[in-house]
Design a protein that fits this description.
409 residues, six-stranded mixed beta sheet, 25% helix, 25% strand
Length: 409
């Protein structure tokens, strides 16, 4: 069908030929391609994968550019970051922290995934088994502004039209074609084999549990640095991740955002009081007092009743190697049950994979932190597992400096 889409001769009155831009900012050419992707998503995808390229022009092993901004929520958090996968600089996939990573416009493949994370602090009593450890917790949220599939509760709803319309351009179909397109969709439901199994919805709670488990087990943060009074008081870091724009590979973007927010985190100065053999936190000292000659690691004061007060200065955390995730979607290829592996899948590619994906988390010490397979068709040979691991190691090497600090590269 794509071969039959040809451009007519250009009349002198219209330099763009038959492809004009409508009121939605979309050319007729883009509308035709989007209609083809909606009607025949499997054939549309195979038009590209059969030529060893993806719909957005990337090779199979190429990821979108990564943009990281830290300190975006200075008023409401002690550390924050925003991560964007994809954007205006689509030709650079090495990432750039100084760029704003603006999401693309109305063209196909111009969308991006963007998440934001902020660190807030609570003081609690450590557990008896780990009296010298603090705690870290992760919460993930989404809403209707994250994508057209999300409801007010942050759940992604997959209906019979979501895969055909697509999350990035569902509202772009002009009203003059709605009746024709709807009739074609009904006909496609009867004939297309690509609609036999619906795509897997994005499970926010599953992503939340996955991020919490890996940020704790990756040794990226030392829980002993969160201790205030051993056995009596410790910091609990709450990291809240909100999905601003869900256009594929939200898990990777969220983990990178958490690591960048922890890099931006600074624990405030805290004043503790010891009385009758017990210790309790009195208050968090404002930053202004921290600069008034109180910058010692611990400063002991005596009050009239003889109880001791200690001030512990604020500090940055000593972080370990960054856990860098690499997600690879497994796409069907033709009728011979062959498969195509694509790095950093978009929302459309995730829909077509039907939840079959692999995520490997590596660091620059050449350690595999986690290896997760999802879906019943995510079976890989030993050679494919080795290739996936090598891709994860290479991506960890490229993004380590970006997440840590550009000046350290």
């Amino acid at each position: 069908m794509m071969a039959s889409i040809k451009k007519s001769s250009r009349p002198s009155s219209n330099p763009e030929g038959e492809y004009t831009v409508n009121k939605h900012g979309i050319s007729n050419q883009d509308w035709i391609l989007r209609a083809y992707r909606s009607l025949e998503p499997g054939n549309y995808l195979r038009e590209f994968t059969s030529r060893n390229v993806r719909p957005d022009g990337r090779p199979f092993v190429s990821s979108r550019p990564v943009f990281i901004q830290r300190g975006v929520l200075n008023r409401n958090s002690y550390g924050s970051a925003m991560v964007t996968l994809g954007g205006s600089d689509s030709g650079n996939n090495d990432g750039n922290e100084d760029s704003d990573g603006m999401c693309g416009g109305a063209s196909i493949g111009g969308s991006c995934t963007r998440v934001i994370a902020g660190c807030t602090l609570l003081v609690g009593r450590p557990s008896a088994s780990t009296p010298n450890h603090g705690d870290i917790d992760v919460f993930v949220s989404a809403g209707p502004l994250s994508g057209p599939r999300f409801d007010l509760g942050g759940r992604e709803n997959i209906d019979s039209s979501s895969i055909m319309i697509g999350s990035s351009y569902r509202d772009d179909v002009s009203t003059e074609h709605e009746n024709t397109v709807q009739l074609a969709f009904d006909h496609n439901n009867l004939l297309s084999s690509d609609m036999e199994r619906p795509p897997q919805p994005l499970d926010i709670k599953s992503i939340e549990s996955y991020l919490r488990r890996n940020i704790r087990s990756s040794r990226y943060i030392n829980p002993q640095e969160l201790s205030i009074l051993p056995g009596k008081a410790a910091w609990k870091v709450r990291i809240t991740v909100h999905i601003l724009n869900a256009e594929g590979n939200v898990t990777d973007a969220s983990l990178l955002c958490i690591c960048a927010a922890l890099r931006d985190l600074k624990l405030p100065m805290v004043e503790t009081e010891e009385a009758e053999g017990t210790g309790s936190v009195v208050k968090i000292v404002p930053e202004e007092e921290d600069d008034e000659g109180m910058g010692l690691e611990r400063l002991k004061l005596k009050n009239q009743s003889g109880t001791g007060r200690k001030r512990q200065s604020g500090k940055k955390l000593t972080l370990g190697p960054v856990p860098i995730p690499t997600t690879i979607a497994i796409l069907p290829q033709g009728t011979n049950k062959s498969k195509v592996l694509v790095v950093d899948p978009t929302c459309f590619e995730e829909d077509m994979s039907r939840g079959n994906a692999i995520t490997v988390i590596c660091n620059t010490k050449k350690e595999v932190v986690d290896f997760t397979k999802k879906g019943s068709e995510s079976k890989l040979s030993l050679e494919e597992i080795r290739a996936v691991t090598e891709l994860g190691m290479e991506r960890a090497r490229k993004l380590e400096c970006l997440v840590s600090s550009v000046s350290d590269c």
